[in-house]
């Protein structure tokens, strides 16, 4: 027997304020009649959600040398995609409602494959333009994948979220470890190494295509069920708590993307070999699974998540400080400490969106705000770190600035972790 709407699990979804029409419900049942195919599509799509970003960092030196880029210009290779993670997050819910989640996810995978190939064309404009396509594609996957999982697996949302999160981190780990060996296998061609990962996106698109064909019956599918509040609407953008959640999301994303952009370079600049630096970076990505899995479970059992905020920000600060003091001899330790902190922080940031929301509609709007503003803020991290490194000739000052970001994240996180709710409604 179906549960009443009032007791259904909170859905963080582009379609949170809608119920399927009879045609839509039939199409969803058809989708779930092929669980192995659907699961394979989710896993393969998730493998791509960080791979295209993680593939660049171990090869940053070769890309920079090929185009004669400064540190600041090199940082744009990472900053441009992250910037468009925010831009894409702003339009993803609208596209999902208008075209259907399955269709948009297929388009995102095809766009990702194209962006990866454009990025390796012999042009600086193509390098950055491909980053625009890559960032936009990943943004669509980031925003719509959790909603699809929670929509189609409402009774197994937690376990399925672990599957897709684990696949996302596994993809980044494998790509980070394989980028330099692939470059060598292709005769020293960083272009071939980067382009290789377009195959991963193409295979995911091919496996996802049947879901789109099955889901065609969902055209014109939605019946709106959320009544508009009387009087002027107070949105999440005017809520202090919503801004606190958003800033914590943005600041933890900023320290993560600085590491994604520059960790191998920091290690190689201090004498570590490129291949070893790539493996340490891959290990950092792998360890993130532990924090991303455990911290949200703990957060859901606590009225206030302040101890977890203090824990994850402290771990990240200790790891960054270690990279400043002993970057090579302590590299594996700092990679582990940072990984647990990074994974825990992103898991906590996403969990706070749900915990601080009073209803499903608010959760959807707060998610859009947090991801849009958060990624726009995070895009400044790699760029600023590269510019400061270029100006100072070392990594001490850039890392010190990231430690200031950790302090700011601690303050905003402690405020966001209070047992309160953001509510969207009439004033």
UniProtKB/TrEMBL annotation:
<keyword id="KW-1133">Transmembrane helix</keyword>
<feature type="transmembrane region" description="Helical">
    <location>
        <begin position="73"/>
        <end position="92"/>
    </location>
</feature>
<keyword id="KW-0812">Transmembrane</keyword>
<feature type="transmembrane region" description="Helical">
    <location>
        <begin position="307"/>
        <end position="325"/>
    </location>
</feature>
<feature type="transmembrane region" description="Helical">
    <location>
        <begin position="331"/>
        <end position="355"/>
    </location>
</feature>
<feature type="transmembrane region" description="Helical">
    <location>
        <begin position="194"/>
        <end position="214"/>
    </location>
</feature>
<dbReference type="InterPro" id="IPR011701">
    <property type="entry name" value="MFS"/>
</dbReference>
<feature type="transmembrane region" description="Helical">
    <location>
        <begin position="104"/>
        <end position="121"/>
    </location>
</feature>
<feature type="domain" description="Major facilitator superfamily (MFS) profile">
    <location>
        <begin position="34"/>
        <end position="421"/>
    </location>
</feature>
<feature type="transmembrane region" description="Helical">
    <location>
        <begin position="161"/>
        <end position="182"/>
    </location>
</feature>
<feature type="transmembrane region" description="Helical">
    <location>
        <begin position="127"/>
        <end position="149"/>
    </location>
</feature>
<dbReference type="GO" id="GO:0005886">
    <property type="term" value="C:plasma membrane"/>
</dbReference>
<keyword id="KW-0472">Membrane</keyword>
<dbReference type="GO" id="GO:0022857">
    <property type="term" value="F:transmembrane transporter activity"/>
</dbReference>
<dbReference type="InterPro" id="IPR020846">
    <property type="entry name" value="MFS_dom"/>
</dbReference>
<protein>
    <submittedName>
        <fullName>MFS transporter</fullName>
    </submittedName>
</protein>
<feature type="transmembrane region" description="Helical">
    <location>
        <begin position="275"/>
        <end position="295"/>
    </location>
</feature>
<feature type="transmembrane region" description="Helical">
    <location>
        <begin position="395"/>
        <end position="417"/>
    </location>
</feature>
<feature type="transmembrane region" description="Helical">
    <location>
        <begin position="367"/>
        <end position="389"/>
    </location>
</feature>
<dbReference type="InterPro" id="IPR036259">
    <property type="entry name" value="MFS_trans_sf"/>
</dbReference>
<dbReference type="InterPro" id="IPR052524">
    <property type="entry name" value="MFS_Cyanate_Porter"/>
</dbReference>
<feature type="transmembrane region" description="Helical">
    <location>
        <begin position="241"/>
        <end position="263"/>
    </location>
</feature>
<dbReference type="Pfam" id="PF07690">
    <property type="entry name" value="MFS_1"/>
</dbReference>
<feature type="transmembrane region" description="Helical">
    <location>
        <begin position="31"/>
        <end position="53"/>
    </location>
</feature>
